[in-house]
Write a structure and sequence with these properties.
Number of domains: 1
Oligomer: single chain
Number of helices: 4
Order of helices and strands: HEHEEEHEEEHEE
Shape: globular
Radius of gyration: 22 Å
Strand order of the largest sheet: 1-3-2
Number of strands: 9
Structural class: alpha+beta
Strand content: 35-45%
Distance between the termini: 63 Å
Largest sheet: 3 strands, antiparallel
Amino acid sequence: MCRFRFLTLSVLVVFLVPIAAQAQDSRIEYRVVATTKTSTLEKEMNQAAEAGFRFASTMGGETAVGGKEVVVVMSKSSAEANPGRRIYRVLATNRTSTMQKEMQQLGDEGFTYMGQSVSETTFGGKEVLIIMENISGQENKRKQYKLLATSRTSTMQKELNQEGEAGFRILGLTVAKTSFGGDELVCILGKW
């Protein structure tokens, strides 16, 4: 009887020790970056990336202390094996034609769209803000991006279906006041 209890206890220890170690290895640490300046946002995101953090989420809006800020949450998992050094670029403009060109330049270098938000400028306008990521040391395939902007949802549906037929998939959507179109739906699509 004593031998059976010892054997049962040994089996339990063999199974529980790896489970406890796995639970400890799956901790996630977060870093919050909040700013009103896109240049500061890119700098702070890249500093966090050097410490092993990666982009998790973003949102623009009014915070209690900082005012109108863009907030980015970055995370680092202890379970992730060799994540590679990430490089971030933050694109911000109220001219959608400029954004399309800048996104495609980064896509040609292998950057991946990660998220988008709207940030308010110091002059009261709103900019579309897009976060792009590249991982150094990996083969980064060229990516194609399209930016669609319109004030009419029926027009957006038609344009989305046209791009969908060409293999583009939707990556993100925001509503922003741009310099040309006023309040516009801004949709980012990608293909790779």
